[in-house]
């Protein structure tokens, strides 16, 4: 596509990636310049990304994965560790102001190989130590759904269910969008190819998968996400950036499992037999090291539920693992940023004497295609020693 348009030259001269202007920033990482923001003449709803490859002297329009931030009245961009760009949106609510564009993370490198194209991926930044999602696996009929329903009924404001996609037909009482998103195989395969799924697997002859949107919807509602997925899915999530707590539910015996599957009465004989055959392999795989953090036996339902609550810190004997949400610090609508080591100093342009905001990015967890957690934000007095230390580091 040739040379960078003259229109962008002002921004392209800004090699350190710290400049903010009304609509677009340029951040240099290696031989690539990432132009982030509104592209002149285009009217997309989300922030655009285009790359100028210095070696090949050409523009590249990358495949953009993850949920994208909406357009705003400008932003600041800061390169982090050479593999991510931190975006601070102006004019935005605190919960929607920090985003991360991954340009060379493990997830992005893996996706580049799969899609055989240039890839970048968005991840929304979360302030504070939010709760890990919970992955629950176990053979069909062991009682995963029953335990999850009990948890959601007792703690409706704490937990949200990740509604999976499946190609299997709905059962009598199942509602589309509530129990599953029931879908055609061809549609689901295309969405998988387009990077819309966090994980997917073929289970008992049908395709099942967790979309990024399903997990995002729970996080957007401010709840802790519960995923009911098979062992293959759990393995994929373990390898992803989701950083969850993994729980495997075991049956007391194969006879009891068969009894439960049959008494549920939802499967035809052929399916029951298939699910029982698969159960042995699933239990075996579930035990393999490195996937599950906890194993629970679902013999007596009440007992198992009590143990589930105990390990989640909800039984009153241990401190609840559900932490209060982080203190809200309003970012100034218009600001400039300065990076010092793992801290980003945000100063409002309107009232220089006001407190400054420090964003600590030293303990980031997770990332695309989900959220980046562990961002810490605090205010400092503009005359404090801490501020001087940060400035000296920059
Ligand atoms: N501890 C238990 N004792 C007896 N019956 C149980 C117990 N736990 C669950 N059940 C019953 O077993 C049946 C299967 O449970 P459930 O549907 O929750 O299993 P599941 O693991 O979610 O299965 P699937 O993976 O097929 O969705 C249900 O009828 C449920 O009421
Ligand atoms: N890998 C995934 N497995 C999933 C997902 N959603 C459900 N499941 C698992 O499928 C079986 C069968 O479920 P059923 O509703 O047909 O009985 C069960 O083990 C679920 O845990 C998913 O998104 N990904």
UniProtKB/TrEMBL annotation:
UniProt family annotation: Belongs to the guanylate kinase family.
Domain (Guanylate kinase-like): residue spans on this chain: 131-313
CDD domains listed in its UniProt record: GMPK
Reactions performed catalytically: GMP + ATP = GDP + ADP
Family annotation (NCBIfam families): guanyl_kin
Originating species: Tripterygium wilfordii
Gene Ontology annotations for the cellular component aspect, listed alphabetically: cytosol
Protein name: Guanylate kinase 1
Keywords for this protein: ATP-binding, Kinase, Nucleotide-binding, Transferase
Highest classification ranks of the organism: Eukaryota, Viridiplantae, Streptophyta, Embryophyta, Tracheophyta
GO molecular function: ATP binding; GMP kinase activity
Top-rank lineage group of the source organism: Eukaryota
SMART domains recorded: GuKc (SM00072)
EC id: 2.7.4.8
Gene3D superfamilies on file: P-loop containing nucleotide triphosphate hydrolases
């Amino acid at each position: 596509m040739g040379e960078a348009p003259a229109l962008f030259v002002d921004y392209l001269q800004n090699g350190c990636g710290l400049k903010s202007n009304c609509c677009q920033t340029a951040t240099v990482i290696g031989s690539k310049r990432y132009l982030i923001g509104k592209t002149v003449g285009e009217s997309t709803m989300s922030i655009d990304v285009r790359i100028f490859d210095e070696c090949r002297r050409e523009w590249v329009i990358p495949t953009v994965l993850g949920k994208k931030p909406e357009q705003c009245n400008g932003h600041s961009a800061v390169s982090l560790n050479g593999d991510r760009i931190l975006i601070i949106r102006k004019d935005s609510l605190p919960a929607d102001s920090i985003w991360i564009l991954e340009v060379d993370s493990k997830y992005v490198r893996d996706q580049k190989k799969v899609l055989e194209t240039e890839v970048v991926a968005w991840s929304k930044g979360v302030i504070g130590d939010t709760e890990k999602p919970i992955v629950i696996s176990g053979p069909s009929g062991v009682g995963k759904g029953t335990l999850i329903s009990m948890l959601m009924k007792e703690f409706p404001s704490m937990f949200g269910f990740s509604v999976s996609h499946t190609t299997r037909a709905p059962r009598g009482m199942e509602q589309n969008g509530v129990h599953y998103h029931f879908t055609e195989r061809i549609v689901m395969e295309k969405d998988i190819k387009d990077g819309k799924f966090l994980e997917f697997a073929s289970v008992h002859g049908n395709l099942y998968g967790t979309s990024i949107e399903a997990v995002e919807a729970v996080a957007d509602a401010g709840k802790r996400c519960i995923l009911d997925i098979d062992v293959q899915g759990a393995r994929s999530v373990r390898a992803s950036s989701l950083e969850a707590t993994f729980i495997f539910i075991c049956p007391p015996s194969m006879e009891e499992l068969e009894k439960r599957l049959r008494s549920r009465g939802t499967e035809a004989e052929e399916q029951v037999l298939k699910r029982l055959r698969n159960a042995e392999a699933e239990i075996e795989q579930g035990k393999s090291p490195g996937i599950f953090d906890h194993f629970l036996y679902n013999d007596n339902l009440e007992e198992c539920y009590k143990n589930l609550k105990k390990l989640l810190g909800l039984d009153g004997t241990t401190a609840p693992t559900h932490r209060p949400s982080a203190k809200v610090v309003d970012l100034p609508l218009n600001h400039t940023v300065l990076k010092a080591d793992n801290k980003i100093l945000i100063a409002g342009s309107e009232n220089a004497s006001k407190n400054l905001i420090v964003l600590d990015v030293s303990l980031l967890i997770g990332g695309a295609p989900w959220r980046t957690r562990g961002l810490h934000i605090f205010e400092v007095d503009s005359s404090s020693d801490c501020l001087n230390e940060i400035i000296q580091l920059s």
